[in-house]
Amino acid sequence: MASIQRIVSPLTNEVSYRAQVRVKGRSSQSATFPNKKEAQAWAASIETAIREGRHFPHAAAKRTSFDALAADYVKTVLVEFDETERAIRERHLAWWSKQFSGRSLAEITSDVVATARDVCAAETFTRGKQKFDKKTGEVVSVPKEYKRSGATANRYIATLSHAMSFAVKERRLIDRNPVADIKRKKESSGRTRFLSDDERERLLDACKQATWKPLYTLVLLAITTGARRGELISLAWADVDLKAGRAHVRETKNGEQRVLPLAGKALEALRVLKLNDSARSEYVFPNASGLPGYFEYFDAHWHAALDAASIENFRFHDLRHTTASMLAAQGCSLLEIADVLGHKTLAMVKRYAHLVVDHKAKVIERMVAVKGL
Fold first, then answer.
1. CB 308 within 8 A of CB 206
2. Model confidence at 354, in pLDDT bands (50, 70, 90)?
3. What is the CA radius of gyration of the chain?
4. Does 200 score more than 60 pLDDT?
5. Are 236 and 282 in contact, with CB atoms under 8 Å apart?
6. Which CATH superfamily is domain 197-370 in?
7. Kind and range of the H or E run holding 154
8. Domain spans, the chain
9. Element at 51 (helix H, strand E)
10. What is the reported pLDDT for 302?
11. CA distances from 289 to 126, 285, 286, 293 (A)
């Protein structure tokens, strides 16, 4: 039989609920939860498991290592994800495996996870490789060192939580996810760098002069559709309808397919690109080397265009912010901006709220002037 006890912290006055389950012939078990509903749900699940003979506290968890769980999770769960997301989560799991080396699932408590979380957030990493002088062999430059952002650390935690939830719900290896009570790291409000009208024109002019000619079309598409780099660079001609002015993106970051409207100079540039595609390539932006596939690594041409346009502190992803800023200036709502950018919720577009408010303020100012209010 289960009992729920209300607990008030003498230091913080925070309220929690301790659930304890006692079944005849079995030892009691307890756990603490932030609200009564969760405590009751946990108690009910434990009672049911005990009655059905499925509940053996800690036995399976002691026999199963985290590495074994991770391997099972990769084979069973990650196969349903796209290649990019699968690679990211596998990298996260490999990192957690190093932290939990030699530990069984029973040993991975909330305290252990919290300690590893702090290590993850504080850890530094580098990008690129050392460069050497070909003649002297001396080191010319070293990779820049970076610290993980709060958002990145939280993605690592999210992967671990999903794996542990799999252990609870699918494999019945542990009774409760130890990541559930772990506090996430603070995330920044997000970068909002976007191009001014003058910068936009300078960049497009520079792209027209690029040695890789499709760069102009790619950047123009990014500005006018708000699509992500990966969504655009992997476009196949089979998914582009030049007559209707539509492009079908089959794989997106949030897993949902979407359609990109094509209009204006971007549509014209695509038609020219198609007309000049004498090789009849499968992809809109084929590999410049002639190898199969699309031209994923065009960064050298992109950075050359930025230098030619004298634009600093700007990434390709910031073209999405440029799209959002232009939409906001035209009076689009946050909901409309989220729809164009392919976000499921408004959370990611709140950074543009002040731009929308500025437009609304101008509309109201005109209204009160006309009405004499």
1. yes
2. low
3. 27
4. yes
5. yes
6. Intergrase catalytic core (1.10.443.10)
7. helix 150-169
8. 2-55, 61-169, 197-370
9. helix 36-51
10. 93
11. 28, 11, 9, 10
